[in-house]
């Protein structure tokens, strides 16, 4: 997390260790079509303006100032778990987004979200967890890659399948690092 103070222009960096990325989903009304995983990642990493009240202390001003916050990934995990945050909490209720999110099966590139000059960082999908139903009542199923095909698990039954991996029920995506050209300092 990089913070930029609007008063003295001081930059400070903090590091959070993460095991999974919880991504926001753009609202359907704004889009009216399938959104891509890339759009969720962009929304997640985009610069965010923090007002004085919500800003952390600026190290140099020694007080809370307006600042901007930006998220980048500094170290890429071998296993990447992406949680599509379909459940939005408002003041009075929780709602579930059923926007279809398309995601790549191979070669998801997280390089653009890494450090500057970081090359492509490619991930391949190996499992998907789906959630069907509503906020109050739902059911989980899973799809896992096995050798060259995909198996679909729903309670006690399991079938092989090749399509329909992408749906508006995809909830958690499991990716494995394929290649990493990042140079470590
Ligand atoms: Zn400052």
UniProtKB/TrEMBL annotation:
PROSITE patterns: USP_2, USP_3. GO terms for biological process: protein deubiquitination. This is ubiquitinyl hydrolase 1. It catalyses: Thiol-dependent hydrolysis of ester, thioester, amide, peptide and isopeptide bonds formed by the C-terminal Gly of ubiquitin (a 76-residue protein attached to proteins as an intracellular targeting signal). Residues 1-178 form the USP domain. One of its GO terms (molecular function) is cysteine-type deubiquitinase activity. Keywords: Hydrolase. Its EC number is 3.4.19.12.
């Amino acid at each position: 997390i990089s913070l930029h103070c609007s008063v003295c222009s001081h930059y400070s960096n903090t590091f959070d260790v993460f095991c999974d990325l919880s991504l926001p989903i753009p609202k359907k009304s704004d889009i009216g079509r399938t959104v891509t995983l890339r759009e969720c990642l962009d929304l997640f990493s985009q610069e965010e303006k923090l007002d004085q009240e919500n800003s952390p202390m600026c190290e140099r001003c020694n007080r809370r100032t307006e600042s901007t916050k930006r998220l980048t990934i500094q170290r890429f995990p071998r296993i990447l778990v992406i949680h599509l945050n379909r459940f939005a909490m408002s003041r009075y209720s929780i709602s579930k987004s059923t926007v279809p999110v398309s995601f790549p099966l191979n070669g998801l590139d997280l390089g653009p979200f890494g450090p500057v000059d970081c090359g492509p960082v490619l991930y391949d999908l190996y499992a998907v967890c789906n959630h069907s139903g509503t906020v109050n009542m739902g059911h989980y199923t899973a799809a896992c890659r096995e050798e060259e095909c995909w198996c679909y698990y729903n309670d006690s039954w399991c079938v092989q399948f090749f399509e329909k991996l992408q749906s508006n029920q995809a909830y958690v995506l499991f990716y494995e690092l394929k290649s990493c050209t990042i140079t470590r300092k």
